[in-house]
Structures are given as C-alpha cells and as structure tokens.
Amino acid sequence: MDGHPQATADPIDLYSVIGRRRDVRCEFTGGPADPSVLQRILEAAHAAPSVGLTQPWDFVLIDDPGLKERFAEHVAGERDRFAASLSPDRAQTFSHIKIEGIRESSLSVVVTYDPTRGAPAVLGRYTIADAGLYSTCLAIENLWLAATAEGWGVGWVSFYREPFLSGLVGLPPAVRPVAWLCVGPVTHLEEVPDLERAGWRARRPLAEAVHRNGWDRPSAD
Description:
Number of strands: 4
Distance between the termini: 32 Å
Mean pLDDT: 93
Order of helices and strands: HHEHHEHEHEH
Low-confidence stretches: none
Helix content: 25-40%
Largest sheet: 4 strands, antiparallel
Radius of gyration: 19 Å
Structural class: alpha+beta
Shape: globular
CATH topology of the domain at 24-82 and 96-189: NADH Oxidase
CATH architecture of the domain at 24-82 and 96-189: 3-Layer(aba) Sandwich
CATH class of the domain at 24-82 and 96-189: Alpha Beta
Number of helices: 7
Strand order of the largest sheet: 1-2-4-3
C-alpha cells in the first residue's frame, strides 16, 4: 500500500454527474417529491465543508402554493425591470429565456446563511469575512450534484430582492437568504445549458481561466 486513500466509488460517475448538472427551468414534472430522495439530497448538502465547522446554512422547504405564487409574482416584476434596462437587441434575446420554474417544480428550498453561528470566534473567518457565505454556496453545490445523481433537477432563482424573500419566509434579522432553489423530478436534463442554447452567452474555454504563478502568466496547457 502506498498510503494514499483509496477511492470508494467510480470517479467517472462523479464526473458524469458534474457534466450533466443543469440549471433547470422548463423540465420539471411537478410530480411528487419522494421524501427519501429529498432526505438524501439534504443530507448531501448538510455534509458540505464549512468554515470553523459552523455549518451556517439552513434549508427552508417551500411547498405551499400561496408562497410559491407570491414569490413567482415578485420574480416576474424583477424580470421586467431587468428587461427594461437592456439594449433592444439584448432585450429581444432575453425575452425568449425562461428564468425560473417556481410554479412547475415539486418544491422549493430556500438556502440561508447565518453569520452569527459560531461567532464571534469563527475559526477560519478572521481575515475573510465572506468565508461563511462561501461555505453556504458549497452546501448548495452539494445539493445540486446530489439532486442530479438522483435524477432530479435544480433551478437557482436569482431575480429577487433579499428583503422581500426574508419577509416572505420569516427569516430572523441576522439570517440572509442566499438562494431560492426550485427542486424536483424532471423529464430530462438538456445537453446544452439554456443560456447557451438561447444565445445569451457562449461557454468560456478552460484554457482562458487557468493561470500559473501569476495573473499575467497563462498556463502552457
């Protein structure tokens, strides 16, 4: 034995899940959310690494149609305001893009961040105040990948004002809403992400993002 930890699963499966993950808008079935699948997905999210082992996230499960409808109406208003800020050409492209699946998904999960958890002496947050927020995003990514592995979809809705969402779900003053995630079974996952198919943006090659020993020194390969 060489002392290195041994893999407990086929790494190809992990890379396949990462490659299949999509931000889902249109493919939700609205069918029942199996409680055992939901439990596994939430356990995966809760297993994420966190600064100072604070686990600063919470998960607010939303399946009340009235709450979903109020949030969907708020999001629609913010979408309209964003559209009005665009150039005519960009607005035309945006007009064909669906930005959420709030009504269509089986349920939603509001992921929150509590900066007071473990405070004031949070190990690892002394020089980077946002480290707890980064931890919450890691929990979201775990949730997303677990849902993909289970054959479910996730759609991150970002067209909202934080005070509105905080009031809608009754968050304590110190707790920040980080994401409204539409979650549930899907008919399929698209091969090409929505924004690429709609012509909003093209994917950036990895080679453009890799640097070596400094920003102005791109990686050779």
